[in-house]
Amino acid sequence: MKIIIRSAKIIDSKSPFHNQTVDLLIADGLIEKIGTSILDIEDTTEVKFDHLHLSQGWFDSSVSFGEPGYEDRETIANGLNVAAKSGFTAVALQPNSFPVIDNQSQVNFVKNKAAGFATELFPIGALTKASEGKDMAELFDMKKAGAVAFGDYNKSIDNANLLKIALQYVQDFDGLVITYVQDPNLKGNGVANEGIVSTRLGLKGIPALAEELQVARNLFLLEYTGGKLHIPTVSTAKTVALIKEAKAKGLQVSCSVAVHHLVLTDEKLEEFDTRFKVTPPLRNETDRTALLNAVLDGTIDMITSDHNPIDIEFKKMEFDTAKNGTIGLESAFGALLTVLPLETVIEKLTLGKSVFGIQNNTIAEGSKANFTFFTPEGKSTFTKENILSKSKNSAFLGAEIKGTVYGILNQNKLVTSK
Known about the structure:
There is one protein chain. With 418 residues, this protein is an alpha/beta fold. The protein contains 14 helices and 18 strands.
């Protein structure tokens, strides 16, 4: 298959064509030619959009699809289609299915389900059996099957010795450990950030300390053991300060932040709308500002949608009993452009590949064609019509967003949203 991409502005700081508007000729999944005016060729598909921009394919380090077991929330097939039309050429799948992805056969199952799609799926294996936090799962077998990291989704490891052993064990095969950070005892029955808003609304609070204490402990363990540690969806100012200090020491620690923590605050809880019930909880404006600054100064390595489809019957409930989670693939790019510069957004949507050991392809002749098509131009309101996921639990419904995602080219497959 041959494709000509017309008048695309390249956003790739590692490419010799960065910030240049060019044509690209793609042949059999590789970049054959980049130039200012490529002549028409017979039997080619032409890609042309208004104000077209092109970057390396985006990567989301945390998505949940449900399958196997929770196909009513989302299937792998539809989830990958949603990811492609949202601009993501690769996603890391969380193990929170039923059964949990905690062995080689489960890794093989989801990889086989994802075969043949434009968006590549990289499984995260559970760190502990059934994600129960008791016994370490079959990490090496899952690594051989294709797992890119190991962690229990939205569950902290209470047993410090178990985490210590895991960090030591994975070093034999260069494994990456993911540790969600929230002390369950300090969290208690909390449902919202502990502060002025939770007090005013009468909601049980989750103190920032519940996250920060776990971060401090896990970083001490990392310093003791060595190895590689990823801390997902950080949410407080103190957390990023602790991670910045650990990086200055030379520890191999990375972290991500969810889109909703960069854009929204706990002020959104005024109407008790469960779309805004997420974990960790939405924090205050001081924390949100600190997170944005940490993105800009490089302390935060990547941004994730933390896409988590939830059945409507588990969201349309009283705030205290509703499940945590929001979908986020469709709104990620447009929401981020409202708070961050374009080049920062693109950097943080691509940098995570290197942390998870996934190949990144610079935009240059001879490289693999792994692109995201988009424009930063224009504003719109995010509505239900923009949601392609089976579940509709989006925290960004009704929000003003910027830009448009046009689609992706990857695996010699072109997927467009228009």
